[in-house]
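Protocol step 4 of 6: structure prediction from sequence.
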Amino acid sequence: MSTTRQTLVFLHAARGVTALVMALLPGYLAAQPAPLAARVVPTEPSRYRPLTAVHAGAGNMAFTGLLNRGSIGPHFNFLHRGEIPARSGIGHHFHNTVEEMFVILNGEAQFTVNGRTARLPGPAAVVCRMGDSHAILNTGTETLQWMNFQASSVAGVGDAFDLGDDRAFAAVDPVPTFISARLDRALIRPAVGRAGGAAAPAPTGVMSRRLFAPTVFRSAWAYVDHVLIAPGASTPENAHDSLGEAYYVLAGSGVLKVGGETAPVQRWNAIPVTVGETSSFTNTGSEPLELLVVAVARDLEAKTALVRGTARP
């Protein structure tokens, strides 16, 4: 083969490789997590979107998405954060492929699950399992600081079926007949960490309470924890082998480490950590660092393994 022909063949092959790289590059870049500091999402009321009659609910509210679909794994749909004024709420509706958790950080709300209604003071969390219906109404006098987490049984899928009921005149039970938990610091106990796969005491100053265990959920949702880290204390490094975690900072400030990166975090920040990453928190402030932790498994097989106790938390 002549030198000229060899050169032309080489250039043709090089163009082919370049075209292949350029075709694959957008997908590769999209798969790479953003720098950690860019993944720390502040709660900014100026970004809330006002809406009326949400799921045929009473009055109006405003909210925005802090974490989007896939942020911590394929079965995680979103974290919404917003405000619900007095006598406003989200109407009664069903979910058949997804599960949600309404959280109020203050005030008092009337929660409905499967047509049974009870009032709970904040801070509190209420789960709506797949196939159930739910609603919320602000029955207090102050604007509710509200959150909604959603996970799906089918990756990337969501659904809702409205019942046209704002629950404004619902009969109220004296005791809730649904799954709920108070975000009460007094109920948190010293955490249990893991060393070499075996249970081991966590470092001094780290406390945790499991609000909802894996068996609570029918989807790939794994658990919900309430964590308290004393000033100067750090959590053990957590390897997210089969599940991702979404963190919401309820109080305090500190530093989050994910892999080799670190970023400051503070009150009302949301942070996603996905499958395959490692993470730990250090409290660098002068008050307790308080976290709400939502974990969603990589898939239903990983969720099943977690329920059976064969997977790392």
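Step 5 (inspection) to follow. The chain has three helices and 25 strands.
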